[in-house]
Design a protein that fits this description.
The chain is mainly α and about 300 residues long. The protein contains 15 helices and 2 strands. The chain has a single domain, classed as Farnesyl Diphosphate Synthase, CATH 1.10.600.10. The chain has a two-stranded antiparallel sheet with strand order 1-2. The two termini are about 25 Å apart.
């Protein structure tokens, strides 16, 4: 398969996910209008949709129905969008730019942004609970549990709490990994496993997929740190160099750019090794792994 073929796959799935998100979000004219308009502002018309794409790629490996995959992918993206809205607020990372436009609290206000995040999180679980996603109801319950765990104090929210506590501190590599496995890795892992659960996959294969997910989730954060140090604000669509300015521990501050890229390369290799037994059926996941490690924004 060529790079053009992969790009066509990405664009087709991005368009389908965008349309589905547009359909599941409340219309901006429905009361409360300001909140619903802000929810749509925070979710639609931006972002690479990496997590939904990973869900789709793993679901295709597991032979999942496309509509089920779309619902699961939207739920993951709603959680991700909620986390960005809250992370950008003054009490957290205090950023003014996201996806190339003013952050939600800047465009609207802090109270509205707080409610946007709350509402997007609730909507994600409403979507998971109200749509048929798996043949076995017990599997669908496990999908809800997976996303809840990845989003909460043992996952993304917990990682953010550690991140806030670590400003100005020099963390050792295992401590930094512990933080980012939770802050970034757990939601990426949940995206991949949710996609697989929409189809059929035996436990040994799920374990391989889980290893892939953990490796590529950490690689994603390592590359994020490199891009924050090397790219421009115009390229990233968010404020570049902010981690260094805020004195936050990153893989670049700990290892330097060269060693951070080497670490990402090793994680990339480990992720691809985990997919070896799937052969050509895992092509899209391999391509997504290559994109994550090779991306420039």
């Amino acid at each position: 398969m060529t790079n053009d073929d992969f790009r066509s796959w990405v664009h087709a799935h991005q368009a389908r996910i965008e349309s589905a998100l547009d359909g599941c979000l409340p219309r901006s004219g429905v009361p409360p209008e300001r909140l619903h308009g802000a929810m749509r502002y925070a979710v639609l018309g931006g972002g690479k949709r990496v997590r939904p794409l990973l869900a789709c790629a793993s679901g295709e490996l597991a032979g999942a129905d496309a509509l089920r995959l779309t619902h699961a992918a939207c739920a993951v993206e709603l959680i991700h969008a909620y986390s960005l809205v809250h992370d950008d607020m003054p009490a957290m990372d205090d950023d003014v730019l996201r996806r190339g436009k003013p952050t939600c609290h800047v465009e609207y206000d802090e109270a509205t942004a707080l409610l946007v995040g709350d509402s997007l999180q609730s909507l994600a679980f409403e979507l998971l609970a109200s749509k048929p996603l798996a043949r076995d109801p017990a599997v669908q319950l496990e999908m809800i549990r997976l996303l809840a765990s990845a989003s909460g104090s043992r996952g993304m929210a917990g990682g953010q709490a550690i991140d806030l506590e670590s400003v100005g501190k020099l963390l050792e590599l295992p401590e930094l990994e512990y933080m980012h496995i939770r802050k970034t890795g757990e939601l990426i892992r949940a995206s991949i496993l949710l996609g697989a659960h929409c189809g059929e996959m035996e436990e040994p294969a799920l374990e391989k997929l889980d290893h892939f997910a953990k490796s590529i989730g950490l690689a994603f954060q390592v590359i994020d740190d490199v891009l924050d140090a090397e790219s421009t604000t115009a390229t990233l669509g968010k404020t570049a160099g902010k981690d260094m300015k805020d004195n936050k521990p990153t893989y670049v501050s700990l290892l330097g750019v060269k060693e951070a890229r080497e670490m990402a390369g090793n994680l990339h290799e480990s992720a691809l090794d985990a997919l070896a037994e799937f052969g050509v059926r895992a092509l899209r996941l391999r391509q997504m792994a290559d994109f994550i490690v090779g991306r420039q924004f």
